[in-house]
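Entry type: protein chain
Record version: 2
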Amino acid sequence: MKKSKGEGKSKNNQEMSSTHVCLSVIISLCYCYFLSAKIPKGIPRLISLLPIFYLFTILPLYFSSAFLIALTTFFITWLANFKLLLFAFNQGPLFLSTTNVSLPIFISMAALPLRSKQHSLKSNEPNPTKKIPLNLAAEFVLVAIFLELTFHHKSQIHPKLILICYCFMMFLMIDILIALSSSIARILVGLEVEPPSNEPYLSTSLQDFWGKRWNLTVTNTLRLTIYNPVRSALSEVVGKKWALRFAVLATFIVSGLMHELIFYYVNGVSPSWEMTWFFVLHGLCVMVEIGVKRAVKDTWRLPWFVSGPLTVGFVVATAFGLFFPPIIRNGADERVLEEIGSCYDLLKDKMLQLLNFLGHFR
């Protein structure tokens, strides 16, 4: 099929934007590694990083693709900026990276959503073996199935089932993106990283889901940048018990605001704040859950086959009511599906052509 001049021009502009953004990120992180790292920690180093914070905040605006906007906002505007904020005070993975490793590892840790094994926070509990192991190939197959359903047969499927497909696709896409980032870092710089998630569909409580299973790269970053400082600052003011609860709520509020920012960039419309309320609701529920667990201690606990479905069901139900509506209302889901679906169709056609070509030699 012959491409129109407009499509070709748009593709060229997208490629130029991608090159510009990648070079900007690399040059900025070189500045951080060679110059900002030499400035005393604290306010002086933070001031030296202000131009980088600004640049990383506007980089998504160079794209017209909804998928690339969301990806850049997540990787760079959110995670990289938060890591650099920690770096300003000699904390987090980037500070550790400047002390004993090379520039490529520093850039990888900053620009990609990774948790290096030597830098990740150690849990008091051993990392459990996966009960339902999903490798990358299986996740690609599942994404292909959900894309086929939502991209080609959406009009024939009940809206609630579409939302369920979106839930699965969100988990799988985040897992795949972070797994691919991890593979790139491992191949190029030999960096061993932690898995992006730990079977969130097996969560037995909201605390378990958000703290130990879902999108652990974000969890680790928010723990260091929001939860720990807020808890430390409030401990002497309201006591350790309430400081912990307020820190939990503050972490969820910041997460909600960053999700609003992602979809503000994608949609270009003022936020409705439903997404923030989704995270506020979950933050409040986690606070209550912590209080209940402390009150009953180990004297009473729901069996896993009851608490598991209740937990996952609550996450999905509240996502249906608060998380997905602003995405669907403004057509962000359609834009992202169109872009990913077009790539999927192209790849599928190429695979079929290859199979037909190989069939001629039988």
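Comment: The two ends are 29 Å apart (CA to CA).
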